[in-house]
Amino acid sequence: AQRVTQPEKLLSVFKGAPVELKCNYSYSGSPELFWYVQYSRQRLQLLLRHISRESIKGFTADLNKGETSFHLKKPFAQEEDSAMYYCALADSSYKLIFGSGTRLLVRP
Amino acid sequence: GAGVSQTPSNKVTEKGKYVELRCDPISGHTALYWYRQSLGQGPEFLIYFQGTGAADDSGLPNDRFFAVRPEGSVSTLKIQRTERGDSAVYLCASSFPGTSFAEQFFGPGTRLTVL
User: pLDDT tens digits for B63-95?
Assistant: First the structure.
């Protein structure tokens, strides 16, 4: 079955430290993967998608099909990065399957 | 422009009651989705509309849940005989499908509490 796993419920780092939010998936086919972010009192929004291969707000994510992973990374965390992060898999042209989310807390 | 809106933002009801949750998608977006997010979990797919028709309702948990989109714009999620386990945040999203997976724009959600 298609599944997205985010093993960490909470990740706490100090400002300026590197960040890696883990995401593993199971999918029979060519996956399309995304990271969504929800800042405090804001709605869920798309951060980045693997096919774009772009860096958004300093975050990057590389799809590793061998390890079935799509970890989100940032070399130097900022306080404004504190938020809930959700990894998601497109199960079709429209259906998203989300992980349970990781709360990132960046301390000053 | 205006994003996806949902009303009410909060709904408290008693077990056994009927509730309706409304979603106004972004103007021009033909695709509309409902998700449910329970505490400590990510959103779970419920139903997908393309225009007026429900193209995929496989995520609806049981026949107490029903959704409509009669004119291809506003959608209403209806829950009959509510149960305490229905308590969650119900999210709506819309998109304008293209040739590949189109970005889904989410609303703020409706927090449903069943007492």
Answer: 999 999 999 899 999 999 999 999 999 999 999
> Which residue on chain A is closest to B47 by alpha carbon?
A95
Using the Cβ of A97 and the Cβ atoms of chain B, whether some distance falls under 8 Å is answered with yes
Tokens of B66: 């029903």
What pLDDT, in 10s, does the model give residues B6-30? 999 999 999 999 999 999 999 989 9
What's the rounded Cα separation, in Å, for the pair A21 and B111? 27
| Closest alpha carbon to B25 in B64, B71, B66, B61 | B71
B106 in reach of chain A (CB within 8 A): yes
Q: Which of chain A's residues have a Cβ under 8 Å away from the Cβ of B56?
A: 92, 94-95
